Amino acid sequence: MSGKSLSNSLNSRRLLVSVHDVAPVFESEIDRLIERVGAACGPLPPALLVVPHHWASSPIVHGSAFAAKLRRWSDAGSEIFVHGWTHRDESDHGGRLDRWRAARMTAGEGEFLGLSREVARERMGAGRDLIEDITGKHVAGFIAPAWLYGDGAHAALKDLDFRLAEDHLRVWNPSTGAVHAKGPVITWATRSRVRLGLSLAAASVLRRALVRARTVRVAVHPGDAHSRAACASIDATLRVLSRGRPPARYADLAPPCQDGAASVRPAVVEPA
Question: 95 φ, ψ to 5°?
Fold first, then answer.
């Protein structure tokens, strides 16, 4: 490979870092994770995945101190994604695969895995309206809790014209179907020793296996802030992957809208 080609290859590499489950109940953990990520990745702040009413017990309220902090994070450059409405899965899953995904891939938090198109659209739209009213900016997109989407959620994403969505293996445009990045997201699970051990092993393997990948995604969660092992693994992962791979924004993956205008959104009613 020529020197110019190598330079272009390196410049095209991206590290996308996100902090999940941003909600008042996890405020101290989110502060610590943003600081930790910043120490490894420099001045570009991570993307923030915001839950408007976490588990129906931790709402983000207009005029609150947390709402003001959310706006400051946005003003400082964090991309803000809608991350469900409550993050809690209350659906009765009929299909065998969905029952397995709900039971094995998350602990009752796959909110959008079993929702109908209508309910998914209502919750997505209400979350977007709340966050945009607080930040004064368009959200970057929608990412389902636990990265789990059912048919209703996929249909609702198209209805609401979100520019970006993400799951375990890709980042895509829901309206066009264009895939902007592929590859597994590196993340950690801390709710049991077994899951922690498996996620530590996976992170160790992936940060080496993906070192030449064009786009790498790293996602951290509030529970990680309470685990020394997870924090050490996060630090090591970001240290390895940030070599020759500058932190980037999700928006860098997708071309801007042609006219820069906001899409027209259907009226929504805040879910109960």
Answer: -80, 150
- The single-letter DSSP state of residue 184 is P
H helices of 76-116, in order, are: 96-104
- Phi, psi at 186, each rounded to 5°: -90, 120
* Cα 139 from Cα 116, distance rounded (Å): 23
CB atoms within 10 A of CB 92: 8
pLDDT digits (tens, 9 = 90+) for 27-60: 999 999 999 999 888 889 999 999 999 988 899 9
Q: What is the pLDDT, as a whole number, of residue 25? A: 97
pLDDT of 262 strictly over 70: no
Q: How far is CA 270 from CA 18, 52, 124, 127, in A?
A: 26, 11, 10, 8
170-209: pLDDT as tens digits:
999 999 999 999 999 999 999 889 999 999 999 999 999 9
What CA–CA distance (Å, rounded) separates 38 from 74?
A: 15
Where are the domains positioned within the chain? 13-253
Distance CA 253, CA 268 (A): 29
Q: Model's pTM, two decimal places?
A: 0.86
CATH topology of domain 13-253: TIM Barrel (3.20.20)
Give the side-chain half-sphere CA count within 13 A for 184.
13
